[in-house]
Prior knowledge:
By secondary structure, the protein is an alpha/beta fold. The protein has helices spanning 38-49, 81-93, 158-175, 189-194, 209-226, 247-257, 289-299, 312-320, 331-335, 339-346, 358-370, and strands at residues 10-12, 15-17, 21-23, 54-61, 97-103, 136-137, 151-152, 179-184, 233-238, 264-268, 302-306, 326-329. It holds the Pfam family Oxidored_FMN.
Amino acid sequence: MAEPMLFTPATLRDTVLKNRVVVAPMHQYAAQRGFATDWHLMNAGRYAAGGAGLVIMESTKVERRGCGTLGDLGLWDDAFIPGLARCVAFIRAHAAVPGIQLGHSGRKARRFRPWEGGGPLERTPEIDDWDDWELVAPSALAAPESDPLPRALSRDEIPALVERFGQAARRAHEAGFEVLEIHGAHGYLVHEFLSPFSNRRNDDYGGTDLNRMRFCVEIVEAVRAHWPANKPLFLRLSVEDDAGWGPVESVELAKLVRPKGVDVIDCSSGGMRGAPVVGAGPIGYGYQVPYAARIKREAGIATMAVGLIVHADQAEGVLQRGEADLIALARELLYNPNWPMDAAQKLGADPRFALVPPPQAYWLEKRARQVRDLTPSTYRERSDA
Ligand SMILES: Cc1cc2nc3c(=O)[nH]c(=O)nc-3n(C[C@H](O)[C@H](O)[C@H](O)COP(=O)(O)O)c2cc1C
């Protein structure tokens, strides 16, 4: 049988992913004053040990103001590098490629964690740097309207903020990450500049599509200036935000950033109107795959599909049909961190269980040899077993 595409390597610049399964960035809400903890090591580690080709650590903030919650990871100071380097070393030790996402929450900063309700935080003595944790945005608009009003960034402040992305990219490189993703989606700062819903500026960062793209394009340039040319760069977009930014604009932006060194567009959606992107109502399997297909086709750039990709054959189909180059999973990996290993079994791609560390592979292979047609799942006992 031909090797399933999901388990063929992908080469991006000098980086080779051993397969096309990517751990989508997922906030852990577990940092302590921005520093990575043992939780981050364990969490990134279990995905790497589960067989993923690329593990992208969560949206890590380029400045203090950009933190969404009290538990966000930081990369606005060199002091954060060693804690992240520890995670990098562990991911690498399990033959996965370490990646990280750079973000800034903009007007969606300073909130409770999702399971605490996700609403705006209130000033308490425990938050001793409250005044530094300011909500900033392209325009002084709250969404939803009951939220605290952000302060519109002045024209003069923007270059320094752009450079913070550049400096965070340098630190990510120093920590040893091999893939970097700029978070331009989900209603956070970069997306707030892109969308006419949140950007009402009348200077050269607002108004026309091109002006609204300027902040993002400058961030790509600043990041590329500090991120080595041999390392791949991804950009995550809300390809459709239901608020005035859509696939046409996303294709235009992808075409603009491709020659500036973006290798992959990570195609997400939503997040602009207050609803969290993963809670956007009734959505079906692979609901964002059409965005990845369209950007790939119309902008001529590699894409990553994400969003309710759950089954091995579903992921394989997306690749076979040429709709995307990489498959990212988030919640399904919360359910099963060994998904890559499991998917490889279901597609018949890894008879030696080589995707997982030898102490696991040894026993799983032995069991597979002992019991023919074993169904490796908690579901369905075979009636003839
Ligand atoms: C716990 C959790 C944390 C997330 N954190 C981030 C994040 O840091 N950056 C980001 O771009 N998306 C984040 N997302 C969105 C996911 O990357 C992904 O796009 C979304 O969950 C849809 O994919 P899925 O259906 O496979 O979960 C998060 C999702 C979850 C469930």
